[in-house]
Amino acid sequence: MEESDLLAINKGYKAELRIKKQVVEECLKFEYPPREDLKVELAKSTAISFVWMARTRTPSNPKYQIESLYKDHYFLLHLKDESIRLTARTYDYQGLWQRLKSLILKINPKWNPDEADDTVGDALKVLVTKVKSKNDFSLYSSLPSYLGAICMNLCFAHYREEKKKTNPLKTLPKEYAPAAVTEEQLIMLAEVNQVVAADFLGLDEGCKKLLLSHYGWDQEKVATLKDASNDELKTNAQTLIQVSSKDEKPKTLVQLTNGKEKETTIRQRKNRCLTALSLKSIPTVVEILNNYDQGIEIKKMLEQRLRDKIAK
Questions:
Q1: Is 244 helix (H, G, I), strand (E, B) or coil?
Q2: I need a surface site. Which of 185, 268, 306, 310 has the fewest CB within 10 A?
Q3: What are 239-288's pLDDT values in tens digits?
Q4: Distance (Å, rounded) from C-alpha 78 to C-alpha 187?
């Protein structure tokens, strides 16, 4: 154990305490709610969320971020106790609903608006259950991001159920089995993976290290894919999308604990990292797939891959 590491931890801890104090002071300036005890509770919970988010990404506008998180926690407080009045000034509920609805329609463009509305409603029910059943419920991201992840999981769960009901591949004779991946599909997959690679390299160092180790990816290969030109993607797609490391084998969650963290903690961190990556990538990925005639099938495959990762 290096003394310099211990000093760095101590320095970071003191910095977080100062930031939390500053966030609390900023929150106490807000006019709502009128009850002082509730305002203090909101200020403290907002400070915890702000510091947690700042660990992975430096806020470009801290004052706006603090106010936004404060409103998120006010909304959660309203869910715990409906007597706490929710107004357009304290939270943009309609804006949140439309944002989630747009995300769902991007994931499932064939759905109609009513189906998207139903899914948003189901996501909010999940949130209400979590908030009311856990006295220590904590928010480690913005509320739209948290609910967006729930919406994605609900969409994927719906897809799994539909897939169970009908699987035409089981009834097809061998001569109608799916063909090998075509050149167009390969190029499309390379374009998709390039977007994911760029977003992956934009994650914080902790997330990158965890995902690289768990999946056995080679960071240099990921960087090469990210920087590849369109011509390279078209002529060398098969090689570019191979991002597994030859030297490092994938590590299980148990192997990643190293006796310092519990397996459940590692799993939670991994899931948060995957959610952050998928929220960045999905809108652009969907746009790419919609540009190809065979994009629907590849989209299903990628969605299944994402579902499998989130389910782990």
A1: strand
A2: 268
A3: 777 788 877 778 887 777 766 677 778 888 888 888 888 778 877 877 77
A4: 48
User: Where does residue 76 rank: exposed (0-12), middle (13-18), buried (19+ CB within 10 A)?
Assistant: buried
* Cα–Cα nearest to 236, from 172, 185, 303, 187: 187
**How many CB atoms are located within 10 Å of the residue 46 CB?**
27
Single-letter code of the amino acid located at 216: G
Nearest partner of 20 among 53, 64, 61, judged by Cα: 53
Long-range contacts of 67-74 (CB under 8 A, 24+ apart): 67/30, 68/142, 69/139, 69/142, 70/27, 70/30, 70/42, 70/43, 70/46, 72/46, 72/139, 72/142, 72/143, 73/42, 73/45, 73/46, 73/49, 73/139, 74/32, 74/33, 74/42
Spatial CA neighbour of 137 closest among 41, 238, 33: 41
217: three-class secondary structure by DSSP: strand
Residue showing tokens 């006295």: 135
| pLDDT tens, residue by residue, 83-101 | 888 888 899 999 999 999 9
CA separation for the pair 90, 185 (Å, rounded):
47
Quick one: which of 41, 43, 39 has its CA closest to 21?
43
* Residues 197 and 224: beta-carbon distance below 8 Å: no
